[in-house]
Amino acid sequence: MPKLPDSFYTHADVVHVSKALLGKYLVTNIDGQLTSGIIVETEAYCGRGDKACHANYKRTPRTEIMYQSGGVAYVYLCYGIHYLFNVVTNVENLADAVLVRAIEPVEGIESMLARRNMKQLAKRITAGPGCLTQALGINKLHYGANLNGGTVWIEDRGKVVNETDIMAGPRIGVDYAGDDALLPWRFWLRDNKYVSK
DNA sequence: TGCTGGATTCACT
DNA sequence: GTGAATCCAGCAC
């Protein structure tokens, strides 16, 4: 299965990339366990002028990775409990990123259940940014991981997503960002039960 | 060196 | 609907 090329991630419009990631397959091969799922919900974060983006205010060691050329993972620990998985986009020195909020499980469901400490498949296994990282085994070790490597990557398996099936709305949990919290930069696949909220 | 609060989730009431 | 759990980056001193 073809991994997405570097040119996909270095696209100049992070909003475009956010929508293009819907329907793609997020795959991890961690601890010898292959797990994957269809990306069904994303959010765009722009490093320039977007108050909700970590990299907007100041360049720090944590956000340094977002200034790299697109195609690497930005993994961030939130509330001391949950890891959030982002895809860095755009070219070097432009700190854009796409937050992956939800996926639909496809492969390695048994492994996901074990990681989530669940007995049977339920919607909440991957519906939410903190959930999907746990299900896929993503953690701080994958901060800065190259998405063309053999640990975490994204595949295009030819699934077609119609523009009319893509819904847009305000982002979640970024009320502190003032007016920028209202930007319709959250995207999800219509009628998909694994979308959070 | 110490304090504050967050791109959240889950278990209760 | 509400509140606790829980770590570390960023900033103040």
Labels describing this entry:
single chain, alpha+beta
- Estimate the global geometry from the Cα principal axes: globular
Q: Treating each run of at least 4 consecutive H or I residues as one helix, how many helices?
A: 5
What string, H for helix and E for strand, traces the elements in order? HHEEHEEEHHEEE
Spans of at least 5 consecutive residues whose pLDDT stays below 50 are: none
* Largest beta-sheet characterization: 8 strands, antiparallel
What is the structural class? alpha+beta
SS strand fraction: 25-35%
What is the straight-line distance between the termini?
31 Å
Q: Work out the number of β strands.
A: 8
The quaternary state of the protein chains shown equals single chain
- Helicity level, as a percent range? 10-25%
Q: How would you describe what is shown here?
A:
This protein has helices at residues 6-9, 14-21, 54-57, 109-116, 129-136, and strands at 25-30, 33-45, 73-78, 82-89, 96-107, 152-155, 166-169, 186-189. Helix 4 (109-116) crosses helix 5. Strand 1 and strand 2 form a beta hairpin. It has 197 residues and is of the alpha+beta class. Strands 1, 2, 3, 4, 5, 6, 7 and 8 form an eight-stranded antiparallel sheet that branches. The chain contains five helices and eight strands. The chain is globular, with a radius of gyration of 15 Å.
Record the SSE blueprint.
Elements: H1 6-9, H2 14-21, E1 25-30, E2 33-45, H3 54-57, E3 73-78, E4 82-89, E5 96-107, H4 109-116, H5 129-136, E6 152-155, E7 166-169, E8 186-189
Antiparallel strand pairs: 1-2, 1-6, 2-5, 2-8, 3-4, 4-5, 7-8
Helix pairs in contact: 4-5
This protein binds a DNA duplex (13 and 13 nucleotides) through strand 3, strand 4 and helix 5.
